[in-house]
Amino acid sequence: MRFLHTxxxxxxxxxHRVNLLAAQRQFIDFLVAAAAEREVDAVLxxxxxxxxxxxxxxxxxxxxxxxxxxxxxxxxxxxxxxxHDSARRLGVGSRxxxxxxxxxRTDPARCGEPVLLRDxxxxxxxxxxxxxxPALVRADLGVEENGHAAVLTAAMDRVRxxxxxxxxxxxxxxxxxxFVTGGQGSDSERDxxxxxxxxxxxxxxxxxxxxxxxxxHGCQTLSERVRYSGSPLAYSFSEAAHRKTxxxxxxxxxxxxxxxxxxxxxxxxxxxxxxRLDDLLDDPVHEAHEDAWVEAVITDPARPxxxxxxLAARFPHVISLVFEPERQDEEAQESYAxxxxxxxxxxxxxxxxxxxxxxxxxxxxxxxxxxxxxxxVRAAMAREEAVR
Length: 388
Description:
Blueprint: E1 2-6, E2 14-15, E3 18-19, H1 21-37, E4 42-46, H2 57-72, E5 77-80, H3 87-90, H4 94-97, E6 102-104, E7 115-119, E8 122-128, H5 134-141, H6 148-164, E9 171-177, E10 179-180, E11 199-200, E12 210-214, E13 220-223, E14 226-228, E15 245-251, E16 257-263, E17 270-275, H7 277-282, E18 293-298, H8 307-314, E19 318-323, H9 329-333, H10 336-340, H11 345-356, H12 364-387
Protein name: Nuclease SbcCD subunit D
Domain Nuclease SbcCD subunit D C-terminal: 267-355
Subunit structure: Heterodimer of SbcC and SbcD.
């Protein structure tokens, strides 16, 4: 049986204020075409379908279009919510649209109810585990201990209990949205530690033929049977080196896995450039990045004038600017407290003005204003102390 394993669509998300809807539509076109051309038996979506609980209308319309097109091709879809989704909203009408082969597994109570598909070698049971926020599902799953590992273990116990009652040789696939130990994160994933210790050991999924993971945005293989598909698009510059793909998973009659990565369309490459502004503007080595989305890390000791406008003249798609000034070795080794030792409040304030003005300190009039402000604060503090 053949699957396409995807996750983390994040429909409705932007990239540094750049609208990604057209790029997401291009991905959906690619996914539908790949599913048809490769004659897959199901498409798996392991969470974070949307980027937020209440997505914009355009994102909902794109989601609707994707499911309709796959249903028209007769390709089943198994989909679970992630931590960005509203499980209840995503699951509206789930039992009705299941008749069209669209299987939304959004209810933690249904963890042990598989979607059953059949090929020439027998049944394949696909268990969709929604994102399990420990504080919200502990009672439902009968878990006393707090933490993601505890609730996911309880959900997998239900999976194994259901599987024990099925015919011998039934192959199993589990979809889960979690941070599994050994996975490499990026800047664009929402922290899930609020519900307890985030990391879940891969051993939780023992006995399963294939685990289709979502949450981490980089495609990665934790073991032959446990994989992240990653997000189909880059959602932060920390993903600049990612190769965005979906997994084609072939499951044979014995439950053995053959996996192939299929490249997703890239709307525009990403580039993280670092250096002094003049070097970024003049160095020919950066010609390859002139059509990329660029994050520029400026290292000039003093902030240069109009850096974004000057960068845009060479890199028209620069969308992020970070200022990390170079420091002298002795200054870099000093702690913040050491750099301030022996300096008055007024001197510290004047240094700050000089820092943000590319080395130009305050005028005489501004020094007078700063001095007056500090005098007023000291007088107020003295009056407060006298009252005590």
